[in-house]
Amino acid sequence: MRLFACQSCSQMVYFDNVSCTRCEAVLGFAPDDLSIHALGPAGDGGWQPIGGGRAYRHCANRLEHDVCNWLVPVDDPEPFCVACRLNQTIPDLTVEGNIVLWRRLETEKRRLVYSLLRLGLPVTPKRFDAAGLAFDFLADTAPSFDETGRVLTGHASGLITLNIAEADPVVREKMRSQMAEPYRTILGHFRHESGHHYWDRLVQGGPWLEEVRALFGDDTEDYAAALDRHYRNGPRPDWLEHHVSAYAATHAWEDWAETWAHYLHIVDTTETAAEFGLAVRPKVGTSADLYVEEGIDPYGQADFRVVLAHWLPLTYALNSLNRSMGHDHVYPFVLAAPVIEKLDLVHRIVRDAGSA
Questions:
Q1: Which residue has the higher pLDDT, 47 or 287?
Q2: Of the candidates 275, 342, 350, which has an alpha carbon nearest to the alpha carbon of residue 120?
Q3: b (16+ CB within 10 A) / e for 14-52
Q4: I need a surface site. Which of 12, 61, 145, 294 has the fewest CB within 10 A?
Q5: What predicted TM-score, i.e. pTM, was given to this entire model?
Q6: Domain segments of the chain: what residues?
Q7: Rounded distance, CA 92 to CA 67, Å?
C-alpha cells in the first residue's frame, strides 16, 4: 500500500481517511490515479483536487452510508465507485450492528481492489460482464456460523460470497481456532476468494493451464470428494513441503487460491514497507539473506526473486516484533521451494495479464 499526503498541509494521511486530521481538508481516493486527494468544491456539487485536476463526486455509499471514501469522475454515470459497483448484495441495514460489520468489510475489500488495480488486472462488475466480479455480503439466518441457515464464504463463477460475521473479531477468532488456522482475516478471505475468480479469468482454458497444472496439480480431480477427504482425514502429512498452507493441499484450485492470496499479501506488505523506508539490518549474524537496504516497487518488479529477497527479511523482523509484544507471528508460514516456484508462476501470469 502506498503512503499518501494531504495536498493542503502535507500531513501524512491514510488509505481510509475521509478528512485530514491536521487541516480538516476533505479527502477522497481516486481509483483512476490510485491517489488520495485533498478536495475543494468544484461547483454543481462536485469536488476538485487542490492544485487542479479532473472533477469528482463522492461514491454514493459515502453519501448514503458513510462506508466508502472513493471518488467517481463527475462525467461517470455510475453513482458508485469502481469498488462499490462490484456489490451485488449488501447486508440488511435495518438489522442493528450490520452497518458496522459492512463498513469493516468494505474497508478490506477496497484494499483488495487497490491491489488488483495496481496489478492492472480486470476489475469488471458482473452486471456488466458475465465473466466479471461481484460480491454478496450475507448474514446467517440462524446464530452466527450455526449449521442451520449458515452462509458459507466462497466463490462461484465470479460471485464472491462473504458471511458478514467474519467482520466480528470475536466470531472470526472462534472460527480460526475451530478450523486450526494460523491466520484468518477479512482481507485474507477476499484475497483467497479473488484467486478463484482469477483462476477462471487467467488460467482456465488459457495458455498457462498446463504449466499451472504441472505445479499445482490436477484441477479436474473431483472437488467435493477432495474437500470431504480433507475434512475427514485432515491434510496430507507432507503438506508443509509442497504447499503454503494445510488447506492448500486439499485440491489444485485451493492451492492456487491460497498461493494467490499469499502473493497479494507479499506484494502489498512489501510496498508498505518500502513506502515507510524500512530497512532490515540485524546486528548479529552474517547471513546476507537477512539484510534489506532499500525498498522496491513490488507491483512493478519483473523478477519475483527480487520481491522475495525483500519479503523474507521483512517477515523475520515483523514476526520478532510481534513476539516482543506478546502476539503471534504476523506471517506464520514457511515458504518451501515448491511454494516459491508457485508464487513465481503467479507473478508471471499476473505480469502477463497486466500488460495485455
A1: 47
A2: 350
A3: ebebebbeeeebbbbbbbeeebbbbbeebeeebbbbbee
A4: 294
A5: 0.93
A6: 4-79, 82-203, 207-356
A7: 14
